[in-house]
Amino acid sequence: MQIQDDYIKNQARCIAHEIRNQVSISDVYCEIIKKHLQKNNIEIPSVENALNCIQKSSKIINNSLLDLKSLSTYDFKILDLNSLLLQAIEMANVYIHDKCIEVTLHTDENCLVEVDENKFLACVINLLKNAIEAIEISGWIKVRTEVRQNFVLVKISNNGAKIPEEFAKNIFDEGCTSKTYGSGLGLFICKNNFKSMFADLNLTKSNDEVTEFEIKLPVKIS
Question: Which CATH architecture group holds 76-218?
């Protein structure tokens, strides 16, 4: 059994190494494009934003694959919550494609949170991606913050298809998914990542009008 476990771990490390090599190529080409635009004095904000999002996504993937143990270790930093949410929204916009979806951010007073930046962004992006997929053609996604005395609530809601009741009660269980193509790992990983960051993720409502997930985070007192 130990030999089998060691073999699986070694194979996983090899696969992770190869994936990192391929991801790093996209980062290199992003830099080449940036230098070309700069050299020719070309300013296209949408392209620059897309390149920055690609590089940020590459960084998240690379940091997760750098060491397979990174899935259970955390690099905590004190960060501005509103800036993190804005980054996540910008990166998640790539999933909208040809849908007509308005994503808005409504923030309460600003606050600091102590989180693992890459894991926090990955989890929020996953929630936004799920919301985008729940909307068939057009709709809205709202991200709101509510600062309380010693914690902050981040509410992510959408007016897409509701989550069926039989899935809603077990939505954070490993393997639970209502998607025909889903793995059922996304929300399971998000729930555990937030828990490791002393936060909590819950499904607060899902009906014909709105589906809402809520993240409860401790506020870092400066």
Answer: 2-Layer Sandwich (3.30)
Residues 25-44 have pLDDT tens digits of 787 788 889 888 989 999 89
Q: Among 112, 25, 117, which residue's Cα sits nearest to residue 70? A: 117
**Partners of 154 in beta bridges:** 145, 215
Domain ranges of the chain: 2-71, 76-218
Distance CA 98, CA 159 (A): 17
Q: Got the DSSP string for 32-69? A: HHHHHHHHTT---HHHHHHHHHHHHHHHHHHHHHH-GG
Q: Which amino acid is at 184?
A: G
Give the pLDDT score at 84: 95
Half-sphere exposure (Cβ direction) of 88: Cα atoms closer than 13 Å: 26
pLDDT of residue 70 exceeding 60, the answer is: no
Spatial distance between the Cα atoms of 126 and 149, rounded to a whole number of angstroms: 28
Q: Using an 8 Å Cβ cutoff, are 36 and 47 in contact?
A: no
At residue 53, the pLDDT reads: 82
Query: CB neighbours of 205 closer than 8 A, spacing ≥ 6?
Result: 211, 212
